[in-house]
Amino acid sequence: MQERLIQSRGTKPRRGAVLQCEHCGKAFYSAPGQVARRRYCSRGCRNAAIVNTQRKACVRCGREFADVPSVAKKWCSWDCYDADRQPRKTCKRCGAPLKLSKRTYCSHECMTLGRMNQAQKPCEVCGALMVVRPYEASTKRFCSRACLNASKRISGPGARVKRGDGYMAVYYPTHPDASRQGLILEHRLVAEQKYGRRILPDEHVHHLNGVRDDNRPENLEVIAAGEHGRVSTQMGVAKRRSMREKLAEYERRFGPLT
User: Fold this and answer.
1) Which residue among 9, 29, 115, 258 is least enclosed by CB atoms within 10 Å?
2) Domain boundaries defined on the chain
3) Which residues contact 70 (CB under 8 A, 6 or more apart)?
4) Are the CB atoms for 66 and 84 separated by under 8 Å?
5) Are strands 160-162 and 220-224 parallel, antiparallel or unpaired?
6) What is the reported pLDDT for 8?
7) Where are the alpha helices (DSSP H) in 38-90?
8) Residue 219, exposed/middle/buried by CB under 10 A (0-12, 13-18, 19+)?
9) Using an 8 Å Cβ cutoff, are 182 and 227 in contact?
10) pLDDT for 106
11) Which residues of 3-24 are buried (b: 16+ CB within 10 A; e: fewer)?
12) Predicted local distance difference test score (pLDDT) of residue 50
C-alpha cells in the first residue's frame, strides 16, 4: 500500500510520505510541505475529530442521533421537541399553535400583519384579501394592476364604475346627460328616479351624510349650485371643528401629542 501511494507519477517521483489518519485509521499520501502538520485524510475526518460527536438517544422516540457535548440536545428533531414540550407555543397574532419552537408567527401573512401593524381588506374586483397599511385603509381598493384595469373596463349597460373623486358612475349611453364614454353619475340618476323628472345641468345633487358613494334615495337632495357650495363649506367647517374638539379632549385627558 505504501509503495503504491509513493510510486512516481510519470517521470517525476513523489517525495511525500504516507501517513495514517488519526480519526479513521486510513492511510493517505501527504505532500512534502504538509507532512509535519497533516493529521487527517479528509476534511470530514478533521471536522468529526474536532467536533467530537457522540451518539445519543432521543428522550421521546428513542432514536439515536449525533450530538456534540457543547449543545447537549435531548430530542432528535423539532417534531419530537414540539410534541414533548408543554404548553405549546402559539402564534403572536392569530393564536394558532406553532410547530417549530423558534417561530413567533404561524405564517408569512401573520408575520407581515403583526410586525408592520397592517390589516386585511377584500379586493373590490376579485374579492381576494389583500394586506393594507394603516394609511392605505381608505385608498387601496384593488389587489393588483389587473384588477384595477378590470374595474375601469365597462362590461355593458348598467355597469357601475367608481371614479377617482369617490363618486359612482353608471354606463347609460342613451341618457341625454351621458358623457362621451357613456357614463352618468349614479346619484343624479337616482335623484331623477326619486323626483320623477330630469335633473337640470345647473342643479346639483347633495349627499346629506357627506359620503359620495352613498346613493340611497333618502340620502340625496336636489339643490342649486350656489346653495350646494354653501352647504358643503358648512359641512367641512363643522367637520374640522369636531376634529379640533376631539383633539383638545384627547390632549386634556392624555397630555399633548409629541
Assistant:
1) 258
2) 2-9+17-73, 121-153
3) none
4) no
5) unpaired
6) 56
7) 43-51, 78-84
8) middle
9) no
10) 84
11) eeeeeeeeeeeeeebbbebebe
12) 76
